[in-house]
From TrEMBL:
NCBIfam families: PRK05354.1. Residues 32-118 form the Arginine decarboxylase helical bundle domain. This is Biosynthetic arginine decarboxylase. The keyword Kinase does not apply.
Length: 298
């Protein structure tokens, strides 16, 4: 097919700009006069650590979910305080982590629980791209694309993650990933280092993605490079497209960048800011106006 022939020639490379993790600490025991739902969750937690217990992992998880559900409803009704809700959520995350440690991926009966907990405990990683611009098929028709970290490949992928783009739309997330065991709702990732976040590669995006991409949130075409590999093994990288600027995208919606800059300059002059600060504001505004639509390093 045409897709099979052309898909392989293009790879989208982007950087992770932030991560949201399910951080938790095991809370202390509730007070003796604490509401019954809190006591019940704590009893389940204690039972999980008793040797020789006969209850299944699924039962522990189910009981804790039911108690947490009751606490959420009670919080909405004013029965539970914010502190009690936070305590319950911390304990629930601790339970999920404890259950995860006892699951066996080779046990078919454990697979549904593993998938459920991987999705629930997954990190949310924000990637510097627009799903609607660069991978519209993933959003529109649930097309699957191989996604891999391009760095940290010598590390054990101990984390699971869900990838989100930088648009304002909740649909701007990749829901399914190609995994070693088939299709998963999260992807394996190495430990995240905020000082050295890994680059990600989105593969097989060479068929139709650039043509179909739309300007949701006015994110434009990405920068593009052509990579040439010669018979002697040498490699040459050539910038073929600098990508769209903010000014380019504004013109698509009938906004004139020069007019905007003039109006902004007039507004700044009306302020009581000193001349140096006014000039700083103007330079930053102009740099943003004629800069890349995606986040750039300063």
């Amino acid at each position: 097919s045409g897709r099979a022939v052309t898909a392989h020639h293009t790879v989208l490379v982007s950087n992770i700009i932030g991560v949201e993790r399910n951080e938790y600490t095991v809370p202390t025991a509730p007070a003796e006069d604490a509401p019954r739902a809190l006591q019940s969750m704590w009893e389940t937690w204690q039972e999980m650590h008793e040797p020789g217990t006969r209850r299944s992992l699924r039962e522990w998880l189910h009981d804790s979910q039911m108690d947490l559900h009751d606490i959420h409803i009670g919080y909405s009704s004013g029965i539970f305080s914010l502190q009690e809700r936070a305590w319950a959520e911390q304990l629930y995350l601790s339970m999920c982590h404890e259950v995860q440690k006892q699951l066996d991926p080779q046990n078919r009966a454990h697979r549904p629980i593993i998938d459920e907990l991987q999705e629930r405990m997954a990190d949310k990683m924000y990637v510097n791209f627009s799903l609607f611009q660069s991978m519209p098929d993933a959003w529109g028709i649930d097309q699957l694309f191989p996604v891999l970290p391009l760095e940290g490949l010598d590390q054990v992928p101990e984390r699971r993650a869900v990838l989100l783009d930088i648009t304002c739309d909740s649909d701007g997330a990749i829901d399914h990933y190609i995994d070693g065991d088939g299709i998963a709702t999260t992807m394996p990732m190495p430990e995240y280092d905020p000082e050295n976040p890994p680059m990600l590669g989105f593969f097989m995006v060479g068929a139709y993605q650039e043509i179909l991409g739309n300007m949701h949130n006015l994110f434009g075409d990405t920068e593009a490079v052509d990579v040439f590999v010669f018979p002697d093994g040498s490699v040459e990288v050539e910038l073929s497209d600098e990508g769209d600027t903010v000014a380019d995208m504004l013109q698509y919606v009938q906004l004139d960048p020069k007019t905007l800059l003039t109006q902004f300059r007039d507004q700044v002059k009306k302020t009581d800011l000193d001349a140096e600060l006014q000039q700083q504001f103007l330079e930053e505004f102009e740099a943003g106006l004629y800069g890349y639509t995606y986040l750039e390093d300063e």
